[in-house]
Amino acid sequence: MARPVSRTGARAPSRGPDPLGTAARRAALRLLDAVLRRGEPLESALALATRALPGGPDRGLAHAIAAETLRRLPDLDALIDSATRQRLPDDAKARFVLRVALVQALALGTPPHAAIATVLPLVDGGPKRLVHGVFGTLMRGGATLPEVPTLPAAVATRWDEHWGADAAAAAARAIAAPPPLDLSLRDPAATAEWITRLGGTSLAPGHVRLPAGAGAVADLPGYAEGQWWVQDLAASIPARLLAAAATPGAPALDLCAAPGGKTLQLAAQGYAVTAVELSESRAARLRENGARTGLAFDTAIADVLDWAPARPADAVLVDAPCSATGIYRRHPDVLYRAGAATVAEMAALQARILDRAADWVAPGGTLVYATCSLEPEEGEAQLARFLAARGDFALVPPRDGELPDGIAAAPEGWVRTLPGTVEAVGGCDGFFVARVSRALT
Predict the structure, then answer these.
(1) Domain of 365: which CATH number?
(2) Dist. CA 107–CA 86, nearest whole Å
(3) Rounded to two decimals, what is the model's pTM?
(4) Cβ(304)–Cβ(353) under 8 Å?
(5) Do 30 and 45 contact (CB within 8 A), yes or no?
(6) Rg of the chain, C-alpha, whole Å
(7) pLDDT tens for residues 93-123?
(8) Which of 67, 28, 155, 44 has its CA nearest to residue 332?
């Protein structure tokens, strides 16, 4: 029988040195184990899984193999099942190793002989013969992966129920290729200049979109000078809805602030921003971006459920912790980690944060609530609950010119970006955004 996947970190016995590249495949196997067996985020597992690798390229390869496997998992498993007499258990090491070999040969352009040679040392005994036989059978049979990946069944069913078959189909199309690179500019008035310099396009003032593979971010013009930061188009909407109300020096709170794109937007708009972040390491990254861009703000390392500002703020942005299912294009691990239990847990936490943050809005001030989630429990239902409980707040729909091209407010007055939103020009993350104002008295 195949060894359980819990032992993917162990080195299989070998009669000689492993083929060059085996270490990166072993690290990819550890990453898949962390996500699929232990429910860890792919990015969080990366450092530990790749600690033995000698350099950045090997770590990048391990990450690419694991991420592409997660994008293609149902289709990889269908191929494996088509070539075995008895279905391999989901946690069988042979299944994991076959996934790694097949995704390289069929999606990443690795020559088949290299794809199989670099994974065989990860198994031993009968499983090694099984892996070699199944891989050879599929290669000789001309196996291919579909152009549009298949979503995990549970995810496809849930999004079909919430948003319809078209959105679920668009979600599958969206994970077939890397998404574009979106940049938010420190000076929106310079949008045309940066489109010319970077060779991109724009869907809104202060936004530049570059194609996937545009190059290393730190090597692009303007990065070192702090002229822009990376931020998905949809993620820029919450702070855009606070821009019109900005007056120089007005106090603003950005809660759960890291990685900091929204903090930088608010600071660039002229607010006196306090960014509240629980994680010291994530707050350090936020400060680094502030130093690079020259944008000033205060940082508080605190849990927003324990912390309180010295005085109410004119603007409060709550980009709440969530299931993160809306960022599945860049983080396909969420398709397997974020189920009903996670959504319910996050919705309960969001309610506590939102209720607390509402008291920090000055009379006549504005609160924007946002989540990068495609689950109504974390968006539409959360807003309905809040407005029912807080009669001193009212929804303020987006005005003309406040939203990026191709993105419209829902009839109810909030913003919901879905799979398929601006798909013709590269798409965007799934977000829910609502702006509410507090009564003056």
Answers:
(1) 3.40.50.150
(2) 26
(3) 0.92
(4) yes
(5) yes
(6) 23
(7) 999 999 999 999 999 999 999 999 999 999 9
(8) 67
**CATH number assigned to the domain comprising residue 78:** 1.10.940.10
- Are 223 and 265 in the same domain? no
CATH number at residue 199: 3.30.70
pLDDT of residue 15: 57
Cβ atoms of 425 and 408 within 8 Å: the answer is no
Q: Within a domain: residue 147? A: no
Q: How many residues does the chain have?
A: 441
- Quote the tokens at residue 122: 């990860």
The residue out of 170, 200, 230 marking a domain boundary is: 230
Write phi, then psi, for 158 (nearest 5 degrees): -65, -45
The dihedral region occupied by 113, where left means phi > 0, alpha psi between -120 and 50, and beta the remainder, is: alpha
* Calculated CA dihedral for residues 412, 418, 423, 427, nearest 10 degrees: 110
Is residue 292 located within the same domain as residue 431?
A: yes
Give 201's DSSP letter: B
Whole-number percent of the chain with pLDDT over 90: 88
Specify if 106 maps to a domain.
yes
Domain that holds residue 182: 178-230
Tell me whether residue 372 is one of the annotated catalytic residues. Answer: yes
Examine the fold and report which residue of 140, 170, 193 is the final residue of a domain before the chain moves on.
140
Question: Active site residue: 256, 322, 372, 428, which one?
Answer: 372
